Amino acid sequence: MSKYWSATTKKLTPYVPGEQPKLTKLVKLNTNENPYPPSPRAVAAMQAELGTDGAALRLYPDPNADRLKEAVAAFFAAHGVTPAHVFVGNGSDEVLAHAFQGLLKHERPILFPDITYSFYPVYCGLYGVDYNQVALDGDFAIVADDYRQPSARKPGGIIFPNPNAPTGRLLPLAEVERIVAGNPDSVVVVDEAYIDFAGDDIPTAIALVAKYPNLLVVHTLSKSRSLAGLRVGYAVGQPELIEGLERVKNSFNSYPLDRLAISGAVAALEDVAHFDATRQAVIKSREALVAEMAKLGFETLPSAANFIFARHPQHDAGTLAAALRERSIIVRHFKSPRIEQFLRITIGTDEQCMALLAALREIL
Ligand SMILES: *Cc1c(COP(=O)(O)O)cnc(C)c1O
Questions:
Q1: pLDDT tens-digit profile of 119-152?
Q2: What CATH number belongs to 40-270?
Q3: Is 91 left (phi over 0), alpha (psi -120 to 50) or beta?
Q4: Which of 177, 304, 321, 331 meets the CB 3.0–4.6 Å disulfide criterion with 198?
Q5: Residue from 95, 171, 191, 231 whose mutation best tests the ligand 1 pocket (most atoms within 8 A of CB)
C-alpha cells in the first residue's frame, strides 16, 4: 500500500494467474494451454511479417486489424458473420474487460455463476460493477431458469463461460438461448474459451447472433489454436454491440494487436485442417484420461473442455496437488468453497497424461 496509489488501486483484488514456472522440465497441466504447437502456417506468416530485418515493425499495426476481422468473419460465414460483427483484442481477457466496462456496467447488478472464471469479480472491482452470483446446481451445472428475472429486477448483464471454467461442463445451446431470449434488455456475454473442445460439431452461440441483439460471444486463440503466447481474442455480436466495444477500445489503446499477432492469427484461423486435427487429439486424450482416472477411483465432471475437473473420495485434493508437484507435475487446485476437493487438470499430450497417471498410481 502506498500513499501514491489512487483510491481505486487501493481497493483492487487482482486476478492471480496459474503459475508459469521458470523450470522447463515440469509437466505443466495447470493453465489449460494446448500441448500441441500452433499451425505451421501461422508460424510462417509471422516469420514473413518479421522479414530478415524486422523493418515492418517500424510501423504501427492496422489499428482496426481489418484482415483479422475478415478472417474471423470468413470462419463463421455460415452464421452470417461479417467484419462489422467482429471485435478483436489483446487476448480475450482484454475483450472481456472492455465488455465489462462498455456493455455490462449498468445501474443493476450483473449475474454470473458462483463457480466460474475468477477474473469476472476482478473486472467488477476494477470498473465498479455490482454483481450477484447464481449457484450452480448440485451437479455443478448452470441452470438457465435461475437467470430469468422479473422485468422489475432485470440484471445489468449476464456473463458465463461455456463450457464453464473450472468445471468443464457444457450448457446445451438451447439452454444458452433460453438465457439470451429470457433477458432481452440485458447483454448476455457467453465466454466460449473452450467451446472448440466440445465435440465434432462445435455448439457455438455465434449461431444465435443474427437472432439476438443482446448476445456477445467471446473466443480466444489461446486454447484451441495453441497461441496463448500471442495474445489474441475476439468477440462476435451484432454491429451495435461491436461499436460499443470499439468506443471503449479507442478510448484506451488504439493498437491492441501488434503486427505479428495479426498475421499469425489470420493464418491460424485459415488453417482449418490443423485446428481440427489438434482439437480432435485433445478430445481423444481427454476421454482416455477420464477412463483411466476412473479406474483409480477419481470422479470427473463431464468435460467439454481441454481440462478435467476431478476429485477422489478418499484423498484430499490439496495433498494430491502437492504430491504431484513433488513429482514435477503441476495441476490447479482452487481453495474455494464447494470445489476445494477438486483438481483441475489440463489435457496434455498422451505422454504427459501417462506421466500424470503413473504419478497418481504411485501416490495413491
Ligand atoms: C483462458 C480463458 C480466457 C482468457 O483467454 P486469453 O485469450 O488468453 O486472455 C477467458 N475466459 C476463460 C473462461 C478462460 O479460461
A1: 999 999 999 999 999 999 999 999 999 998 877 7
A2: 3.40.640.10
A3: left
A4: 304
A5: 191
